[in-house]
Design a protein that fits this description.
This is DUF981 family protein. It comes from Actinotignum urinale. The protein has 6 helices and no strands. The protein is mostly helical.
Length: 232
């Protein structure tokens, strides 16, 4: 059991948000004619997926986590952070491999990976992501209902919002929005309007994840108790 829980969900949040932003940019690039080689995109998703998958698995399997005094979440971080990160990290890693395979196949025929081909290649993964997306929605709602998303008084940035619903609503929005984008993703290739909606949701939620990650990069430094047991 870890005495202080796992606090590298800082980088995990930033990586998750970065993946979501890159998904939007990648989708727009693939939709263009003469978009060029996609190998770099494949490696980017492999790298990001590897980090998120490994850290997610470590958090999932390091159980039980010790509750941190003054926080409301830590014993179940393996469920709320670890499991989704592990699943989506692995899916992102495999998606990167699929992009590389599609590009190699196109290179052998001197062709180009079209948006239709790429969507058909990734669609099975999107269905898996959609199923897990329902879990994200439930995590968001459950965390709000059971009070997990309340800002702890001992965290330097979050305590500024103590007693308000701003942070709980933001975290719930992150999970529900991520889940909604995942649930709708297998159908974006059949409906352009839906595709635009999903891309907007994905971009906005990705930015929010990155913002949250940046704030906790600062605040988690002051999250650990001082030698006298007090907090900064």
């Amino acid at each position: 059991m870890l005495m202080q829980g796992i606090t590298y969900n800082t980088a995990m949040a930033v990586i998750a948000g970065t993946i979501m932003l890159l998904v939007v940019v990648f989708a727009r690039i693939v939709a263009r004619e003469n978009h060029g080689d996609l190998t770099g995109w494949g490696w980017a998703f492999i790298a990001l997926g590897s980090f998120l998958g490994i850290t997610g698995l470590h958090m999932t399997l390091t159980w039980p986590l010790k509750q941190i005094d003054g926080a409301f979440c830590c014993k179940v971080d393996n469920i709320t952070f670890g499991e989704p990160a592990a699943v989506y990290g692995i899916l992102t890693f495999v998606a990167g491999l699929a992009i590389l395979a599609a590009q190699r196949k196109a290179d052998r025929t001197d062709g180009e990976v079209t948006a239709t081909v790429m969507f058909r290649t990734l669609r099975p993964l999107l269905f898996v992501a959609a199923i897990i997306g329902f879990g994200l929605v439930l995590i968001g709602i459950g965390g709000m209902y059971f009070g997990m998303w309340r800002p702890p008084d001992i965290e330097p940035v979050a305590r500024l919002m103590a007693g308000s619903l701003i942070e709980p609503l933001m975290v719930m929005t992150l999970y529900v929005g991520s889940g909604l984008a995942a649930i709708l993703s297998p159908f974006v290739g059949e409906n352009k309007k839906l595709a635009k909606v999903v891309l907007v949701i994905t971009w906005c939620i990705g930015m929010l994840w990155i913002f949250l990650g940046f704030t906790v990069f600062y605040s988690h430094i002051g999250f650990f108790p001082q030698p006298d047991g007090s907090y900064i």
